Amino acid sequence: MLIVAIITLQLLLPSSITGTFAPIVALIEVLLLGVIVSINPRRINREGRWLRALGLLLIAFISLANAVAMSRLVDSILHTNDLRSPSELLFTGGNIWLANVLIFALWYWDLDHGGPAARALRPHPAPDFLFPQMQPGVPGGADWRPHVVDYLYVSFTNSTAFSPTDTMPLSRWAKMAMMLQAAISLITLALVVARAINVLPN
């Protein structure tokens, strides 16, 4: 599960990045996840307003935690130099980058077509992403529905290519989200790699 992977990544960050509140943040995330799973384990067999609100709240909270970690990483690189070794710097930067990929995959999965419940229960919800399998003439395209791994692929390729690849955003929010993700990924990689090269031993 992507959320469990993200929480694990957050707990692996050094204390100079997470501060003393990391266990509390993880506990809140686990509690929210537990409530969602207990209400609807599969989360596709009902379309409740409260259930959807809890899911979006959890993703937003995880996103905020990763944004705080990202800001502290940038502050460490530019000012405090808390991460002095190249290995620690690369691990922390890679950790936050990977968490960012997983988080945006969750956003895409939870917002496209109105969410996973809408994709499962409604006949043809309006898509926010145009996957190759949805193109006219593709066998089975009329009945094809994206799964979480498809959104993970979109998120990963957007973070590595800094632009859409074979899946195109259709709605404005999808375009803005992909643009934001590409910008965050580019800034993270550029700062971390530049700093790591700078602190490498001669």
For the biggest sheet, the summary is: 2 strands, antiparallel
In total, the number of domains comes to 1
Which strand order do you get reading across the main beta sheet?
A: 1-2
Total strands: the figure is 2
Nearest-angstrom radius of gyration? Answer: 18 Å
Q: Termini distance? A: 42 Å
Which regions are unreliable across 5 or more consecutive residues at pLDDT < 50? none
**Total number of helical segments?**
8
What percent of residues are in strands? Answer: under 5%
What order do the helices and strands follow?
Answer: HHHHHHEHEH
Q: What is the 3D form?
A: globular
> What is the helical fraction, as a range of percent?
55-70%
Average pLDDT metric = 85
What structural category characterises the helix and strand content?
mainly alpha
Instruction: Please state the oligomeric state of the protein chains shown.
Output: single chain
